[in-house]
Design brief:
- The chain contains 2 helices and 9 strands, in the order H-E-E-E-E-E-E-E-H-E-E.
- It is of the alpha+beta class and 169 residues long.
- The chain folds into 2 domains: 1-30; 35-165.
- Strands 1, 2, 3, 8 and 9 form a 5-stranded antiparallel beta sheet that branches.
Length: 169
């Protein structure tokens, strides 16, 4: 009897080991998730708009490099996100904090390969003036990095802004 139980247990263990080996091989052979690498720059500025016309913007910290990796959703109704937080120096001192949130969305009505996938860039600013800015973009406008300006205004008419850009200023 003991010999029968031992043989049954040995066969079950071999079967289980073969199943694990097959599922491991399937996992290793599966295509890796598609990832979009976003590389660009952040620059901050202030602008005096207290008079009849706004003055030219005054640059602060420029060309802070940002690199994010955004996974691509693979099925309708899926979305993915990437986030970065940066603090940049304003002209004359002080800081402007920026939270960047980038999204890739495969719409529910999209086809199997996510045709119609779109992207969203969101920027939240805090510091001397708060602001929230967002844009929904197609892939050509989103990659290699979205181009967007976001600014908040104080009651006196002074603007504090951030520019997302692809080339050095």
């Amino acid at each position: 009897m003991k010999k029968t139980i031992f043989i049954a247990a040995s066969l079950l263990a071999q079967s289980l080991a073969a199943t694990v080996a097959v599922s491991r091989a399937e996992t290793l052979d599966a295509p890796p998730a598609q990832v979009l690498e976003l590389k660009g720059y952040l620059s901050v500025w202030t602008q005096d708009c207290a008079g009849a016309a706004c003055q030219l913007p005054e640059p602060g910290e420029r060309n802070r490099q940002v690199t994010l990796r955004l996974a691509m959703p693979a099925a309708p109704g899926e979305a993915s996100a990437a986030h970065a937080s940066e603090k940049l120096t304003l002209p004359g001192g002080g800081e402007l904090a920026a939270d960047l949130d980038f999204y890739a969305v495969c719409p529910y009505g999209g086809k199997e390969n996510c045709a119609g996938r779109y992207f969203q860039a969101q920027v939240s600013l805090s510091g001397p003036a708060g602001a929230f800015c967002a844009a929904a973009l197609n892939s050509a406008d989103f990659a290699p990095f979205p181009v967007l300006m976001c600014a908040g205004t104080l009651p006196g008419g002074r603007r504090f802004g951030l520019t997302l850009h692809r080339q050095l200023l």
